[in-house]
Design goal:
By secondary structure, the chain is an all-alpha fold. It has helices at about 5-15, 25-45, 50-55, 60-75, 75-105, 120-140, 145-150, 165-195, 200-210, 215-235, 240-260. The chain is globular.
Length: about 260
Amino acid sequence: MFKFDLTQQFQNILKLVPQPRKKSGFKVALVCIAVALILTLDHYLGDYRFILTLLHSMELKELNAIFSTLMLDHTDAQLHQLLYWAASIILFYFVSPILLVVFILKERLTEYGFAMHFSWDSYKPYLIMLIIMVPVIAYFSGTQSFLANYPFYTVERAEQLYPNFVIWQFFYLLQFIALEFLFRGFLLHGTKAKFGFYAIFVMMIPYCMIHFGKPLAETIGAIVAGIVLGIMSLKTRSIWPGVMLHYGVAIMMDLLVLYRKGIIL
């Protein structure tokens, strides 16, 4: 008979990560401060409305007029707003920590989950989880909160998915890569030498908090997702299976919501 020993499984996971070391204080402090600063800067500078207010207060009239036209008055203003948001995440979540790893910490990016593993064993658990998520996504895609929030790019009934929705999905994928690298790469692998397995829970807290303002079910789900994706990142030493799972869930949600709204058949 199949027997699942939770304690034994937990012990097996603990063996996957290094034991905490006393001489890793500087690195952990740098990583944590950097993540706090990154999240703060992205929260403000990634909001086009903050930039409009800033340009206005600095009396940069020409720049303000150009930016205002792109974000508010252009026929593709909605797409421009989303691309600006995604570009901010890519800059702060992805480019900034890479520069810190390479030039300040002087370490390899592969030590922060950037390695690609193409073995079936690395991706099999993620594919299973993605399949398990299908009925969950199907259910929540019909709830009012998800119908009101997704997809981020609002497709009108008479509008074609190409080019704007397709362009958005490409940048949506890029921001998921940046998201996974910051949390399951830089923060998780940057603190595991100090906290060991419990670095997952350090990472999970800010990851949950960036979901504030989204549907309640999604925000609570971020706690579970943060832990599960953290475990898998430590096990595979790679963020890429997590990117696949994360974007897979996102694109399924978007398409199912569009289907329920009658945009696609």
